[in-house]
Task: inverse folding
């Protein structure tokens, strides 16, 4: 079964009942931007049941020039990715060509879960802005693994080679410190934007604070590692470092995730994602594609309007929105007075 | 694969254990041996058995040797005060092929990687330190792979021999000779810029 869609308007509304393929269509756009699905890591899960592969084509217009992008998953599981019939050797070099931001319901875990999701968000954004960041991050993770293995081997063999531990500490500091500096520098300008956007969405002043939280703010990384050495030896892993960093979010002084309502959490998620979009826009010189998957659940009418105004009117880029409720979506889009195309799936 | 002879099957299985050899290639090799004279095949297997049982490792540098000391270490024309530290014997062969090095080697037998269960004790590091102390070495050249574990190994050994105050260097990392800038990956190109060298050195070294 083949289907093709064209999106002549800047705003595209995608409506249909559960399981009809709204999110699938959004994911197809994501796939052509990032060479992979947003929702699953396994390519085989993107294949139609009973089929052995897929072909996905899209025409992107960049600076007025159409580019034909194509992805094929073959029967043997091999994936090919091409732009204008030229195959990529490394998929990673495609990422960033069509900047794209997606907001999906499960993203809320970035607000409600532990710090890992927030670090991943930060890391993926900074990696897109600065290729050197990703390189340091990859090295940092490898050294951290080596260090943890060494700490385990100390416990297993009852021999403690502190000289080797110091060498590895030194390597960890060398990769970790620039990562810390980059995060600190970036968040100084980024977090106020998030806060501003949050208040815009909620249309009233709410007392939230976002603060970069890192042990490295207190002391140099090397001293922290030295101070925590006994603890590390005891727990057989690296208990301190930039892999413990977090963005501390508070609402009237209390941890945001524990007291904020569902709608407030969602508003904050939008604020983070929209801030990401602004950063990408400034970096690339044109606005990224925005994919909104079923985002209006749990939001009050006013927040929906504010949000739509921001993404459809203030934002000049192309937007794709899915919703099960066609009437609601169309009503709100008409309220912000924008032209749009509605696709019924 | 179905074999009508267990002897044949055993031989194929043995060949298939070798790196880069699959079952089909193994069968081809075995059938080739089968076509040859018995004497020739005996010679073949003897040479291999002899190689394994009689080969020795140089007591000084751990390179392969036919005697207690390898031919490189016992060559009086080579500068005994310069030691090139390498991971394995293949690296010795690679550097020897350049014909640019006239010192001696020290084969570590691996690099430090706790993740793979390799610590300093599993490698020929202690013997290197003793050797440097004993032999009045002037320079230690590290020729290890440019990755994290290679760096760990270099720093560790450097730390150990620091009190001796000898010159420690590492091979240059950068753009391949005959390579083109636009096809060089960013990491390598970036490093080359960071570690750029004065043109006088560059010209005089060519």
Result:
């Amino acid at each position: 079964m083949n289907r093709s869609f064209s999106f002549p308007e800047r705003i595209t509304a995608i409506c249909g009942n559960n399981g009809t393929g709204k999110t699938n269509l959004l994911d197809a756009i994501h796939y052509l931007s990032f060479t992979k699905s947003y929702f699953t890591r396994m390519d085989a899960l993107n294949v139609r049941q009973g089929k052995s592969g897929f072909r996905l084509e899209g025409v992107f217009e960049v600076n007025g020039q159409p580019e034909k992008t194509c992805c094929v998953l073959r029967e043997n599981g091999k994936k090919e990715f091409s732009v204008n019939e030229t195959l990529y050797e490394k998929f990673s070099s495609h990422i960033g060509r069509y900047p794209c931001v997606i907001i999906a319901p499960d993203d809320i875990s970035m607000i409600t879960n532990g710090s890992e999701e927030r670090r991943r968000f930060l890391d993926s954004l900074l990696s897109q802005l600065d290729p050197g960041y990703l390189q340091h991050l990859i090295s940092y993770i490898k050294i951290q693994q080596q260090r943890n293995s060494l700490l385990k081997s100390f416990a297993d063999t009852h021999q403690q080679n502190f000289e080797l531990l110091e060498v590895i500490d030194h390597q960890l500091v060398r990769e970790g410190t620039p990562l810390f500096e980059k995060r600190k520098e970036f968040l100084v300008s980024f977090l106020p934007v998030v806060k501003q956007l949050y208040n815009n969405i909620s249309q009233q002043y709410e007392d939230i604070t976002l603060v970069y939280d890192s042990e490295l703010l207190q002391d140099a990384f090397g001293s922290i590692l030295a101070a925590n050495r006994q603890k590390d030896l005891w727990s057989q892993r690296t208990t301190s470092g930039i892999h413990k960093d977090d963005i501390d979010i508070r609402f009237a002084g209390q941890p945001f995730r524990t007291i904020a309502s569902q709608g407030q959490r969602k508003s904050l998620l939008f604020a983070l994602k929209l801030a990401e979009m602004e950063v990408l826009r400034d970096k690339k010189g044109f606005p990224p594609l925005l994919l909104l998957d079923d985002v209006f659940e749990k939001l009050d009418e006013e927040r929906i309007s504010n949000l739509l105004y921001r993404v459809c009117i203030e934002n000049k880029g192309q937007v794709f929105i899915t919703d099960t409720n066609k009437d609601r979506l169309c009503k709100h889009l008409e309220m912000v007075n924008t032209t749009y195309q509605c696709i019924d799936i | 694969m179905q074999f009508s002879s267990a002897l044949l099957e055993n031989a194929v299985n043995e060949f298939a254990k070798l790196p880069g050899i699959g079952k089909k290639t193994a069968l081809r090799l075995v059938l080739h041996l089968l076509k040859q004279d018995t004497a020739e095949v005996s010679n073949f297997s003897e040479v291999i058995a002899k190689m394994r049982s009689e080969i020795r490792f140089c007591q000084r540098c751990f390179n392969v040797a036919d005697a207690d000391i390898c031919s490189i270490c016992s060559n009086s024309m080579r500068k005994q005060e310069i030691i090139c530290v390498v991971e394995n014997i293949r690296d010795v062969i690679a550097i020897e092929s350049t014909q640019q090095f006239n010192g001696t080697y020290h084969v570590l037998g691996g690099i430090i990687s706790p993740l793979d269960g390799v610590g300093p004790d599993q490698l020929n590091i202690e013997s290197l330190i003793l050797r440097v102390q004993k032999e009045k070495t002037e320079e230690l050249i590290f020729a290890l792979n440019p990755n994290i574990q290679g760096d760990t190994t270099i720093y560790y050994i450097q730390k150990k021999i620091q009190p001796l105050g000898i010159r420690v260097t590492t091979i240059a990392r950068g753009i391949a000779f005959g390579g083109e800038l636009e096809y060089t990956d960013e990491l390598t190109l970036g490093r080359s810029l960071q570690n750029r060298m004065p043109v006088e050195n560059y010209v005089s070294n060519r």
The first strand of chain A starts at residue 11 and ends at 15. Chain A has a mean pLDDT of 89. Residues 162-202 of chain A form the longest helix (41 residues). DSSP finds eleven helices and twelve strands in chain A.
